[in-house]
Structures are given as C-alpha cells and as structure tokens.
Design a protein that fits this description.
The protein is of the alpha+beta class. It has one domain: Peptide methionine sulphoxide reductase MsrA (Peptide Methionine Sulfoxide Reductase, Chain A), CATH 3.30.1060.10. Helices cover 37% and strands 20% of the residues. It contains eight helices and eight strands; from the N terminus they run H-E-H-E-H-E-H-E-E-E-H-E-E-H-H-H. The strands form two sheets. Strands 7-6-1-3-2-8 form a six-stranded mixed sheet, with helices on one face. The chain has a two-stranded antiparallel sheet with strand order 4-5. The longest helix has 18 residues. It starts with a helix and ends with a helix.
C-alpha cells in the first residue's frame, strides 16, 4: 500500500506546492541528500542516527521548480522523493551516514523501493562534491560485495532540493498509527531483513 492510498483513505490532501529550498546548514554543520523510496521512512531512519540535527522530506532531480506531491508521485516530473539530512560532522561523518543509508534500502532494486514503484522512488546518493562521490562509490561497491549482487542505487549530482509540503514533514511523528500501518503494509522491514539479514 503506497502513501497516496494512505493519504486518500485517512487524511485530507493539502493543496500547494513544495516549499522553497531549505536554508544552508548552520556554521560548522553539513547537509547531505539521500533518496530511499518513501521519504517518510527515510526521514524516520535518519532521525535515529546520533549526530543528525534535522531531516527534511522533499523532491530533487527534476527540471521544474516547486513541484507538488501529486506531480512527483504520479511520475514523469523527473523528481525523486528524497531526504535532506543536516548533521554535525564532529559527531557523524558523511561516510557513516552513507553506510547507514544503504542498509535502510534494498539497493538491488532499480525499479523503486518496496511497494512504491517507479523512478520517483528509486534509491540514490545525491552527491555535492567529489569527496561525497568517492564515498558513495565505495559504499556501493561494499554493498555489492556484501550482497553478491549488482547494486542499482544511483549516484547523481546534487541539484536543487525542494522541501515537500508541510503535512509530509515528520509524518511518522504526527501520524504514528498511519505511518506504522503504511510501513508494515509496504513490507519495508521484512524486505530489509531478507536483503541484509538480522542486522538490517
């Protein structure tokens, strides 16, 4: 069961476009963008990581500015659901975040993630510089070695990131019952255990 069904069945759909790009991270802090399928889930996973200051659900990779959730989820806009992670490099490195990220997805799936299908849900590292690209390439190679399968997760240049509509932010906190139902129905955690084993 995908997010559109959850929203249509149990909550009103709010009109409006994605918000403006988030401000730069505070001095001494850094930001990174990861796409792991459903941004509700990716946001929830990163919020649990020590050293992460904040997470923002949003859209990246498309050509049009300020896309709506309806446009992105329908496919064809070129955007991918993603999460911008602001973190403290003194407490957690980009390499640690990237290694954590790949364990929260099925990197062998190039057609989306879990029950959410289509290019708008594909997994990806959005890298901002050569150092991040090198880390992403290493994490992908390690994942392929660990799983003994090709890794389909993309490594793409970071492009403008648009924060998703307010009702998507911290969805797992604001709507815990609906979120848990979605995550269970989507089979995310069950699939992660099959892919990565008990340490997923």
């Amino acid at each position: 069961m995908n997010k559109s069904i959850i929203l249509a069945a149990g909550a009103s759909l709010f009109a409006g476009c994605a918000q403006a790009a988030p401000p730069p991270p505070p001095a001494g802090k850094a930001a990174a963008v990861f796409a792991g399928g459903c941004f509700w889930c990716t946001e929830s996973d990163f919020d649990k990581v020590p050293g992460v200051i904040s997470t923002t659900s949003g859209y990246i990779g498309g050509k049009s500015a300020n896309p709506t959730y309806e446009q992105v989820s329908a496919g064809g806009s070129g955007h991918i659901e993603a999460v911008r992670v602001v973190y403290d490099p003194a407490k957690v490195s980009y390499a640690s975040l990237a290694a954590k990220f790949i364990r929260t997805i099925d990197p062998t799936d190039g057609g989306g993630q879990f029950c959410d299908r289509g290019s708008q849900y594909q997994s990806a590292f959005f890298v901002a510089n050569p150092a991040e690209r090198r880390v992403a390439e290493t994490v992908k190679a390690n994942g392929a070695s660990r799983l003994a399968k090709p890794v389909a997760t993309l490594i793409l240049p970071a492009t403008p990131f648009y924060a998703a509509e307010t009702y998507h932010q911290d969805y797992y906190k604001k709507n815990p019952v609906k979120y848990r139902f979605y995550r269970l129905s989507c089979g995310r955690d069950a699939r992660l255990k099959r892919v990565w084993g008990a340490k997923a």
